[in-house]
Amino acid sequence: MADLNTDTSTQSVNNTNKSSTRGSIVVASLLIIIGFITLYDAASYTDIDSKVFPQTSAIALILFSALAIAKQIMQPSIVSGIELGAWWRRIVLVGSMLLSCALMPYTGLLFACILTFAIGLIASMHDQWTQRKAMVYFLCGLSIIVCFYTLFKFVLHVPLP
Amino acid sequence: MIINKIAKHTAILTMAAAVSMSANSVYADSVNYIIPFGPGGESDISARMQQSFYKEKFGDDLIISYKPGGGGAAGWASLNGINGDGKTIMGINLPHIVIKPAQKDVGFTTEDIHTFYMFHYTPDAIVVKADSPYLSVQDLIDDAKANPGAVVMSGSGKASANNLAQIKFDKMTGIKTTYVSFKGTGASTVALLGDQVTAQWGYTTVGAKQGKAVRMLAVAMEERHPLFPDVPTFKELGYDMVGGAYRGIALPSSASAATVTEWSNRIGEINADPAFRQKMLNGGFALLDIGASQMAAFMKDRTAEYLLDARAAGLIK
Amino acid sequence: MDFGNFLAALTPLNLAVAMFGVVAGTLIGSIPGLTATMAVAVLVPISFSMAPETALILLGAIYTGAIYGGAYAAILLNTPGTPSAIATTFDGYPLAKQGKGDLAVAIACFSSVFGGLVGAFALLFLAPPLASVALAFGPVEYFWLSIFGLSLIASLSQGNLMMGLAGGALGMIMSTVGVAEISADIRLTFGSQTMISGFEVVGAMIGLYCIPVLIDMCSTGEKHLKITGDVAKMPILSAARITFNSKFNLIRSSIIGTLVGILPGAGGSVAGLVAYTEAKRTAKPHQKFGEGEPDGIIATESANNATVGGGFIPTLVLGIPGTPPDAVILGALMVQGVRTGPELFQSNGSIVYTFIYGLLIATVLMLPIGLIIGRYAYKSIVTIPKAVLVPTVGFMTIIGTYSIRNSVSDVVIMLCLGVFGWLISKYGFSASPIVLGLILGPIAEQGFVQAWTIGSAVNNLPGMFFGRPLSQAIIAFTLISLILPWYLNRKKSNKGGH
Known about the structure:
The structure holds three protein chains of three kinds. By secondary structure, chain A is mostly helical. Chain A is 71% helix and 0% strand. Chain A has helices at 18-42, 49-74, 87-124, 131-155. In chain A, helix 3 crosses helix 4 (131-155). The longest helix of chain A has 38 residues, at 87-124. Chain A is flat and about 55 Å long. The two termini of chain A are 39 Å apart. Chain B folds into two domains: 28-120 and 244-313, D-Maltodextrin-Binding Protein, domain 2 (3-Layer(aba) Sandwich), CATH 3.40.190.150; 122-219, Periplasmic binding protein-like II (D-Maltodextrin-Binding Protein, domain 2). Chain B is built from eleven helices and ten strands. Chain B has helices at residues 2-23, 42-58, 73-78, 96-103, 137-146, 161-173, 185-193, 204-210, 257-272, 274-282, 292-313, and strands at residues 31-35, 62-66, 88-94, 114-129, 152-156, 178-182, 199-203, 214-219, 244-251, 286-290. In chain B, strands 1, 2, 3, 4, 5, 6, 7, 8, 9 and 10 form a ten-stranded mixed sheet that branches. In chain B, helix 2 (42-58) links the parallel strand 1 and strand 2 (62-66). Chain C contains 20 helices and two strands. Chain C has a two-stranded antiparallel ribbon with strand order 1-2. In chain C, helix 1 (3-9) packs parallel to helix 15 and helix 4 packs parallel to helix 15 (349-383). Chains in contact: A-B, A-C, B-C. The interface between A and C is large, with 88 and 90 residues.
């Protein structure tokens, strides 16, 4: 499947080392926990109709995850694991988007997204910064944001904050 | 060079943005009508009917937006957090806003919702296919008495108007029918047309839409619906059932009395328009004209009735 | 079906409206978060001032354009622009990574146009008999259909079968969060008011597909997509050649799409999946589905555009919407005073036929328009420096997800799912089974509960679930698709042994 190979094309992928198989076991265990939480919640439903499906799905989840763990232990398959790449960039990017959600109710979407864009720009910039680049890139993003904001708000009548 | 290309595109976009910003002034006076369901349902359709009359009467645009989730709960829970300046209104539905809070904590109580106008209802109706052996309500009752539970009726939602009607009717007649809940009236109509079920607890709107493909056995109204002069009311047949799914509009609780009155008058004016009334009737809707001044009494009656029915049905404690 | 209606569809107004609709629809559909339903709903008020057939042509053109437009983001950003393009990511994105994104977009255009035409012709000639097919599908059939859909996960996750199935189960659990449709219970919200609305499918889709791509893009410095050849020129001829060489795939997928479109509630995402799996099942040995096989795109894009025409069949013949955009269009017609329902063809035949011809014309117009817009889409995504692309796409996901239900919490959920999706994708779990489970879960649950209720009432549960011929056919298909991956694996290991 296409998205099993989420590595960027030039990163080295073959990480059959212990830490990534361990990682996939951890993830599968997390799913098993989710399955048990679901079963626990399902016990409290009043209508029997609403219990059947969550219970069946939870049991399926636990079963398949357990089998996945078993398979990983016996026949470790290649999983890419987390490749090289700057962690600070990843955190800043996601953080900037979460920030816009936090700010949105107070400052409106436009300002929040402009701020997010600026931070995201810094996080994604790998080349050297020049004054000109900084200005052009930022203005570019600014105009895209303003353009889409007006499109959504005034043409499509979406009630943006 | 890429930088130059970007700079060029940036300039174009900025100009486009400026143009649309100036177009924005056109929409400065528009009003937002939030429907707490997805597009295409009965609430949306009746709102669209109002939308088409609003502009010509009041000059502003009535803009419909959707906030689905939780069967309406997401929208209603957020109602009182909205600015009460009168620029935002929200559709409401009975019995939803009475039954839902009574069952579980859904983020709002019935009293939180300040409805200012109830403009129509879709009367409950028993609908069967045109080729069904049931020619009257009595036929259905006889069949259900002979085969308890074997008469299967589709309807939209659980603890909804259809469900309540089924339970109430079963109690009144002493029969036992099986209710199968579908997601929306469209789905329950498909089940009926496909012979998956014996009959449907639907609305007059189904009869209007499906025309000759279906037969309505009875409608829950005070008098026969003008579109269906041959279909008796439940009352005529001896069963005291009048009601259905009601739809109205609410304002946030922070809205001033003046705003409420103004909106009540506006919706009332649309409701009084003969062209609007005809369109709604042609669609199978039944009109109501409960404005802000009569709302308190109306809601009190309806709430009491619904809670009574729901308790008797075992839907709430 | 007389010539007069065809001419009516060719009036300058109707042509202009068709063109505008296709352009607007394609652009709106390409933005992740804006679905075809929204595109149609938003432009309904414009239709009030038009004649009914012009309004229909406008809304139909928007609908078909939006379904096509979803392919851009699917191919170039691994994010389905609309749920119907989910299966397009399977082979579209790998092709783009290999530098053949422009080819993929062009193939998507040709396939979409072909599929759209098949669906529209089915609407024109076969509407009444096909509408009765829609009615034959009851709750049981929907249940088995969704099980079939979920079994597709098995055949799609060949290398990591257990992980794929676990993902699917997780998606199904996620679909139960919130107020239960089938009863009054509130499930898995743990008291949170935010979660009462449940996981919104499109937001979850954007989170699980797009955010991981963004995180990966920003963390390394290489170009996002390889560029081979001249960016300014679209490989139109080779795309056409590839598409039309695959005749069987094209026709079969379009038929699948039409049939799935007829079923109310199924939709373009299911159609794309079924078509993709069928194409994979009948693949020649040299074809590598999932790694950039053009036949994959041909299958999904023709199927999902065929659902447009197919969806109009129950909509116009029975007055029952085949897909959510159809529900909106029906509403717009009602407001216009058109009597929808079984009498539509009789009482308003000329409106209907003019509209169908208009839809055909709009689909044909989608070819040049789609190629032009596709070229610009490809050019911009490929040449924009990553530093600008990443935050821009991030912005679009925020504004797109917000607009679905006008909810900030949806955006937060989208981001959290995105991080979660990124993490688990590094360890062998992928996004598609989860999204599939999320989409098919409600269909499976409602179908099951309804079938159970009816079956119990007539005291014939086994007969209900297993006795109906249509269900039996679906069950047979399911078993085939489950045995298939196991069999293919056996074949591969046998080959390897030699």
